[in-house]
Design goal:
Elements (H helix, E strand, L loop, with lengths): L1 H9 L11 H10 L11 H14 L8 E2 L7 E2 L18 H13 L5 H7 L1
Antiparallel strand pairs: 1-2
């Protein structure tokens, strides 16, 4: 994974990249949560990191995306379907709303930034 990250990163010299091991990244997220813009990782560590990020922002409903600049992409709120709270008027819609904004921004469609600002 690190080799692929380095190889693909070299194709985008205008973007600053930094490799971190997952334990150090989680510690840095707790110490400086605003210090990250995009995190590139595999699925196993991504699941752990998104759970931490959701907790840091106050709940487990957060935006998430699997995005490749030259291929298809998938965006989804981290919370999934949340069956234990279905029908109880307890779900926080911000994860789904911010995920829609992420998709609009990725597609270069208008409105994504305005949605983020409104949240």
């Amino acid at each position: 994974m690190e080799r692929v990250f380095r190889d693909v990163g070299s194709e985008y010299p205008q973007i600053k990249t930094q490799h971190m091991y997952v334990d150090a990244l989680c510690m840095q997220m707790c110490a400086r949560p605003g210090g990250f813009d995009v995190i590139v990782t595999n699925n196993m560590f991504g699941d752990i990191i998104t759970d931490l990020a959701a907790g840091l922002q106050g709940g487990w409903a957060s935006a998430s995306g699997n995005i490749h600049p030259r291929q298809d992409f998938d965006v989804e709120p981290v919370h999934g379907s949340a069956p234990p709270i279905a029908g109880k008027n307890q779900a926080n819609p911000f994860g789904a709303i911010l995920t829609a904004a992420m998709m609009l921004n990725h597609l270069d469609w208008r409105g994504g930034s305005e949605i983020e600002a409104a949240c």
